[in-house]
């Protein structure tokens, strides 16, 4: 279980890092700037809340933090879908 926990902690951190790299490469449109701000916050919140869940004071606290992680992950997905990504030439 500890191994799985560490793997998820690592993956949520890597997700937040990858989001930041993506955001820095986006075209600077008004909508991208606003959506990117929300995306950066939500992706970081996934990692931060998972880390907090590992230090949960009680079982109830653990599940509450995990629930927030899921919420922020879904929100990150929304912001990712809304971004205007650069078009690739074929």
Write a structural description:
With 90 residues, the chain is mainly alpha-helical. The chain has a single domain, classed as de novo design (two linked rop proteins) (Up-down Bundle), CATH 1.20.1440. The protein starts with a helix and ends in an 8-residue tail after the last helix. It is elongated and about 50 Å long. The model has no long low-confidence stretch (mean pLDDT 91). The protein has helices at 2-25, 30-54, 59-82. InterPro entries: 23S_rRNA-intervening_sequence, 23S_rRNA_IVS_sf. This is Four helix bundle protein. It holds the Pfam family 23S_rRNA_IVP.
Main attributes of the structure:
90 residues, mainly alpha, de novo design (two linked rop proteins), elongated
Question: How are the secondary structure elements laid out?
Answer:
Blueprint: H1 2-25, H2 30-54, H3 59-82
Helix pairs in contact: 1-2, 2-3
Short description:
This protein is mostly helical. It has three helices and no strands.
Main beta-sheet strand count, sense and barrel state: none
Distance between the termini: 45 Å
Number of helices: 3
Annotation, overall tally of beta strands: 0
Q: Assign a percent range to the helix content.
A: over 70%
Overall average pLDDT = 91
Q: Shape, please?
A: elongated
Gyration radius, to the nearest Å?
Answer: 15 Å
């Amino acid at each position: 279980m500890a191994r799985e926990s560490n793997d998820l902690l690592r993956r949520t951190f890597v997700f937040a890092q990858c989001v930041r790299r993506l955001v820095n490469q986006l075209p600077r449109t008004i909508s991208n700037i606003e959506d990117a701000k929300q995306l950066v916050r939500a992706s970081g919140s996934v990692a931060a809340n998972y880390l907090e869940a590992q230090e949960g004071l009680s079982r109830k606290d653990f599940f509450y933090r995990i629930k927030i992680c899921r919420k922020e992950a879904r929100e990150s997905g929304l912001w990712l879908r809304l971004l205007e990504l650069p078009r690739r030439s074929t």
